[in-house]
């Protein structure tokens, strides 16, 4: 059974940091940097010391026009910059950890 959580870029401080334990002492963090950007990084416990991106981590999406072509993201130093408009898949040792899917929708008013 899959777990589903929501990470809402519009919400206040309550929902701006998502933490997921991926190994004995490796935690994945997604932290909102603005209403459009989040930062993905890793720590050695749930709250503190940032660590290098663990070996085996891959962050990617699929090409918009060719749905079978992976587009692998490169980190900036030890972080990934994620934009709310894109979908991302995060793997650890070829196992999907997190699938981030943007629920693209517009509220149309007139």
Number of domains: 1
Identify the CATH class: Mainly Beta
What structural class results from the helix and strand content? mainly beta
Question: Secondary-structure element order, as H and E?
Answer: EEEEEEEEE
Strand content: 35-45%
| CATH architecture classification name | Sandwich
Rg, rounded, reads: 15 Å
Q: Can you tell me the residue ranges where pLDDT is under 50 for at least 5 consecutive residues?
A: none
Largest sheet: 5 strands, antiparallel
Question: Can you walk me through this structure?
Answer:
The protein is mainly beta and 110 residues long. It has a single domain, classed as Immunoglobulin-like (Sandwich), CATH 2.60.40. It is built from no helices and nine strands. The protein has strands spanning 17-23, 26-32, 37-43, 50-51, 57-62, 70-72, 80-83, 88-92, 95-100. Strands 1, 2, 3, 4 and 7 form a five-stranded antiparallel sheet that branches. A four-stranded antiparallel sheet has the order 6-5-8-9, with no helix packed on it. The N and C termini lie far apart (41 Å). The mean pLDDT is 83.
Concise overview:
The chain has 110 residues and is mainly beta.
Lay out the secondary structure.
Blueprint: E1 17-23, E2 26-32, E3 37-43, E4 50-51, E5 57-62, E6 70-72, E7 80-83, E8 88-92, E9 95-100
Antiparallel strand pairs: 1-2, 2-3, 3-4, 3-7, 5-6, 5-8, 8-9
List its traits.
110 residues; mainly beta; Immunoglobulin-like; 9 strands
